[in-house]
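Researcher: We're reviewing a set of sequences before deciding which ones to prioritize for further study. For each one, I'd like a predicted 3D structure that I can look through quickly. This is LppA family lipoprotein. If possible, include the structure in token form so it fits the rest of the review sheet.
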Amino acid sequence: MTRLAAALLAVTLVVTGCIKRTTINPDANPGRSELDRLQVMVNARPDLEAVEQQLGNLDAAIRATIAKQSPRSHFSTMTAGHLRNGCRDPFTRNIGRQVNSDMFFVEPPPSPAQWLQIVTELAPVFTTAGFTPDNSSPSSPPLPEGAANDSQSRGDGATIKLVNGVAGSPLDYSFDTGCHLPASWRTAPPLPDLRPSNDPNVHYPYLYGSPGGRSADAN
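Model: Here's the predicted structure for LppA family lipoprotein, in token form for your review sheet.
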């Protein structure tokens, strides 16, 4: 089959609905119904400010626990890239914001014994905040307590990367809110420069279907 024939076949399959357009191009607009499905998820999540506060409290607990159990360890910071507006995949064309921390490193890393004390002490803190271990592949059970990777995730998209150093590397730590709506975006539209350029009249609940809120196709 020639490239032209293959391209025409792909377009036909997309138009007829036999395959998703993102199967051909992962960066393609997934369509209004899929964007609405994702937006409903975002709308149902807690407000961004609440998640930022929770992660701030957890950040303080993590730092205090490391300082307590590994007093010789010191934190350093590497600046990370931050989105001014919008969210990461799969919510790149949805209305929302996603905030990530800088990257933090701890040297010298806690010893295996100190690390076990740290993860043991933090386990109920994470559980109370609604997090579960996210340190293995989806089809595998979480790693045993004390494993170097004690990363966490939560159903609203919030994540914590917490990996102790091995083979001379430092402890690696960061966190991310996931995609959420700022509280004010539920009662008023985002500021004009934070709205889609081709859809300046967007408003909550930011849906193409009923009860509406979006009218132009996302770029």
